[in-house]
What does this fold into?
Amino acid sequence: MHRPGIRLKDFDSSTINTLIASLQSCTRKVNLLPYLLSKTSSINDESELNTHILLLTDSIETIQNEIGYKIFHELCNIRTNQIHSLYYLAEYIQHDQKIQIPWRLSNHDNFLFTNKIEDKYLNSNNPGEIEPIDILSKECIGKFTLNPKHQAVIQTMRNSEYNVRASEIFDIYINLILAERSSIDFKFQTIGGKDFSEDENTRYKFIIEEYFDKYYKKIESEIDRDNSLPVSLDPNAIEWSIVLGNALQLKNAFINLKLNREDFELLHDSNYKSMALNSIGRLCLDIKEMLKSYNKDLKVIPSTREIQKLKRGPTILKQIREEGGVDKVKEAYKIFIEKESNKTGNIFISKANQSSYAQVVKPNELGFK
It folds into this structure.
């Protein structure tokens, strides 16, 4: 079991390789699940089936106990304080799910390459077709680093999913700086295209700078509050890129797991088939399946009279008596259903709007006065 409460930022140079190995272990085990699941439906012998389900359940629990599985939640920015079951993690993860470091530092845009490589990108009409450059090769001169907190602030401000207006203020501010640096004229206009006076241009420029500073300080205080930056390992260390790469492979393993829908549903079954290894657990499962076949409310067991009318009802009632009576089975069934219902719900953060302009707005609504 992993140390409770550990977060990505807590790893250092002596423990980060343990996390990487754990992510790799999770990926291998998740990739093995489709094979184990496909065998489940072909086993008819009850004893052999129970043994196989124990193996399957143990494999799932082993994955869920990995530190890499817990940290994967953080890398996906999952909206939860608990660790979700493997089935529901695979159920809701999508192809476009982002895998990212919580402190929003990017190791991929801070490198300086040789002139040969830089010119290749500069002169290319289709840079997407250029073979990715190994940052450990001689073509990589080095990397440009900033104060980690400052870099985290800038990366966050640039990200429209954090606050779409913050990213727009950032763009305006950078454009103003570049215009001044290149001695390019800039001016503010009304929505109708009328130029403001020189004094108004200066005042509105200061307003942009003021809001840039406000967003900067706001994000900086949030970073301090959340205490999200790594304690010991450099936030720009290459190990974080390796973590991201392995987390991406784990995401792909989850997506592959549900490509075969039939086998994937068997994984859902295994969540409570393992409970069926004891008789009252099997009875709860049988009751649920019976109610489901008649489109009945799955949350409660019907009255004895109503069960008696259903196909298999008399057999179910006999099993209920053998398990100690209606009250005892109702209590067990209540716990069984609660465990199932607690797993539902989308656990991933939804994407923010990409623009703040939902309608035509007036200048004073954008902070200008």
